[in-house]
Amino acid sequence: MDGAAVPARPSGLSAYVAVSQALGLTLLLSTGAWLGRYRGGLGWHSALQINVHPLCMVLGMVFLQGDALLVYRVFRNEPKRSTKALHALLHGLALLIALVVIAVFESHRAKGIPNMYSLHSWCGMAAFVLYLLQWLLGCGFFLLPGASFSLRGRYKPQHIFIGIALFALSITSCLLGITEMLLFNIRDSYSRFVPEGVLANTLGVLLVAFGLVVSYVLTRDEWKRPPLAEELALSMDFKTLTEGESPDGGSQ
Amino acid sequence: MDGAAVPARPSGLSAYVAVSQALGLTLLLSTGAWLGRYRGGLGWHSALQINVHPLCMVLGMVFLQGDALLVYRVFRNEPKRSTKALHALLHGLALLIALVVIAVFESHRAKGIPNMYSLHSWCGMAAFVLYLLQWLLGCGFFLLPGASFSLRGRYKPQHIFIGIALFALSITSCLLGITEMLLFNIRDSYSRFVPEGVLANTLGVLLVAFGLVVSYVLTRDEWKRPPLAEELALSMDFKTLTEGESPDGGSQ
User: Where is the Cytochrome b561 domain (chains A, B) (predicted)?
Assistant: First the structure.
């Protein structure tokens, strides 16, 4: 930091981030407990293949996606370029894990069940395809050279809005998946409050809670990442050169 | 307006609001078409009582709630007090219509089905109770006298965040309800892409689209309601008097 004073972390931010991580880990444990205790566990070359799908979606499309969104708040005093690379890396990892969506297609093929007929599949596939597109556009605009400062500045608010919207859509798709799985497997006993139903409902509530805490951290104005001193100086130079808007000068 | 020039409406806002209203009306028509064409229509003292629930939820908890959120953007040049009253009125109307949730309890009682066991009911009831609480707190803080300017200023960002989050949760609950209703009624034919399944899925996609357009309008910085000249003067007076923050001076 060249001896410069590190700006203090805003009060409350660490507590909210800690809660989000505790919720994220609880999500993974609850999903594991549900699949392990009531759905026979995991497997690829067996009828258990379908169970890989919910675990990978909660890990990739929820936990990792949420953490990728949080990096600008958590690593607020690191250079922007490193934070941006970590943001892209975590989203990329989330996408790779979410690719296990093919487990469902494989499992459906083995059982002769058609694909893409349910609202869950429509929402989930839309979330996945748009997430991939958003990642590619994000890399193209913000990581690779080529996009002008003013173009980046115009695209950035859309990138942020779509990012949070896709996170919400991913969580919604998970809730739809939980409901489908319960109604396919325990339709007759679900209304008797059997433990599997209560556990899976609780997983749904935890997913909503994780989404709320992450979105709150992301949208609270005072917690946005302020530009570091050197970024501010650099962006002023660019502004003078281009007479355009500086996307990196503002908080993200 | 005492001869003062009316500030121009930001470019694009009217188009987005028009799209939101077209989507909202299409939502209502699609729900009506689904219930009328495939679920036997509406009725209170019959087995059709359960059908009143989805229509009222789409009308109250989605369309009216969305429109109530938009009033600060649409009536941006009206006095704040009138806009605030309309905001509270539309939310109150949405709540009244959503009260028809009792249709489900009545229908379940008649058929001997337990209540509140599904993830849809957990999310839906949470959305309704928190929405009622948010409305009461909103009236208490912003409509009734009593809350200090600085207290209003501290509560306002929370009120806005929770408002958008509850809107998203309401839409998610509707999607869960659609999935439940389809799996209870057309479980065996759903995977054959029967028209009822495709129509209800399309309704789900329209609900997501309505949520996205409304949220985009609400969160776009340039479209926030700027304080009118007289509000700015008034808030400066209060600021001088109280040395505190002015919640009405900022944009909402």
Answer: 19-219
How many CB atoms neighbour CB B118 within 10 A? Answer: 21
* Amino acid identity at A133: L
- Closest Cβ–Cβ partner in B176, B191, B220 for A176: B176
Q: Which among A116, A201, A50 is positioned nearest to B201, based on CA atoms?
A: A116
Query: By percentage, how much of chain B surpasses pLDDT 90?
Result: 73
- Chain A positions touching chain B (beta carbons under 8 Å): 113-114, 117-120, 122-123, 126, 157, 161, 165, 168-169, 171-172, 175-176, 178-180, 182-184, 187, 190-193, 197, 200-201, 204-205, 208, 212, 215-216, 219-221
E strands present in chain A: none
Helices (H), chain B: 13-38, 52-56, 65-74, 80-98, 102-111, 119-138, 149-185, 195-219, 229-242
Give the pLDDT confidence of A1-26 residue by residue, as tens digits: 444 566 778 889 999 999 999 999 99
Q: What would the mean pLDDT of B10-23 be, rounded to a whole number? A: 96
Compute the distance between CA of residue B21 and CA of residue A6 in angstroms, rounded to an integer: 48
pLDDT tens digits for range A85-132: 999 999 999 999 998 877 788 788 888 889 999 999 999 999 999 999
Q: A238 is written with which tokens?
A: 């660019």
The SS3 assignment for B6 reads: coil
The minimum CA-CA distance between B16 and chain A, rounded to whole Å, is 15
Provide the ipTM: 0.92
Beta-carbon contacts of residue B125 (< 8 Å; ≥ 6 apart): B101, B116
Which contacts qualify for A4-8: CB closer than 8 Å, 24 or more apart? Answer: A4/A229, A6/A77, A7/A76, A7/A77, A7/A226
d(C-alpha B106, C-alpha A164), whole Å: 38
**Neighboring chain B residues of A182 at a CB cutoff of 8 Å:** 118-119
CA distance A123 to B173: 14
Residue-range domains of chain A with CATH: 13-242 (1.20.120.1770)
- Identity of the residue in A113, A123, A215 whose CB atom sits nearest the CB atom of B165: A215
Q: Output b/e per residue, B169-201; b: 16+ Cβ within 10 A.
A: bbbbbbbbbbbbbbbeebeeebbeeeebbebbb
Q: What DSSP line would sit under A165-193, residue for residue?
A: HHHHHHHHHHHHHHHHHHHHHSTTTGGGT
Q: Two tokens at A202?
A: 């609780």
A 10 A CB-CB count for B71 gives: 21
